[in-house]
Design brief:
Structural class: alpha/beta
Low-confidence stretches: none
Strand order of the largest sheet: 1-2-3-6-5-4
Oligomer: single chain
Radius of gyration: 14 Å
Mean pLDDT: 87
Shape: globular
Helix content: 10-25%
Number of domains: 1
Distance between the termini: 38 Å
Order of helices and strands: EEHEEEHEH
Strand content: 15-25%
C-alpha cells in the first residue's frame, strides 16, 4: 500500500518490452544507448562511475540527475523511492535521465568495470 510504480529494464530493445515504456525506464550503460532508447520513446536511467555529481550535462545537452536515495545518514531524513519519485515515469519526470552509481559487491563492481557511462 502506498507504493509507486517504478521499474527498469535492460531488455528495452525487445519488441515484447515496448508496452512497458509507460511505466519502466530503459537501463542504459552508455550515452549512445541512452540516445537510442530516447529515440525509441523510452525514459532512461544511466549507470555511471562512483563520484559523479548530483547533476551532469550529457553530450546531447540534457541534464541527468543522480539518484538521491539516502538511508541511515545521521541527522538526515531517509530518501526512498516512494518519497523521491524521480524514477516514476510521469509528465514531470519522463524526460529526465536518472543516474545510478555503479554499486554492489566486489565481484559485481569488477564485472561492471568498463561497462558504465563515460561522462
Amino acid at each position: 500500500m502506498g507504493l509507486i510504480n517504478i521499474g527498469y529494464t535492460h531488455n528495452w530493445r525487445a519488441d515484447e518490452a515496448q508496452p512497458l515504456k509507460k511505466w519502466f525506464r530503459a537501463s542504459c550503460q552508455t550515452v549512445e544507448e541512452l540516445l537510442e532508447a530516447r529515440a525509441m520513446g523510452w525514459s532512461t536511467t544511466l549507470i555511471v562511475p562512483k563520484g559523479v555529481g548530483k547533476k551532469v550535462k550529457l553530450p546531447n545537452g540534457e541534464v541527468a540527475y543522480n539518484c538521491p536515495a539516502r538511508h541511515g545518514v545521521p541527522g538526515k531524513k531517509d530518501i526512498t523511492c516512494n518519497t523521491c519519485t524521480l524514477c516514476r515515469v510521469d509528465d514531470k519526470t519522463a524526460k529526465k535521465t536518472v543516474m545510478f552509481e555503479v554499486h554492489g559487491n566486489n565481484a559485481t563492481l569488477k564485472k561492471a568495470k568498463g561497462k558504465v557511462a563515460d561522462i
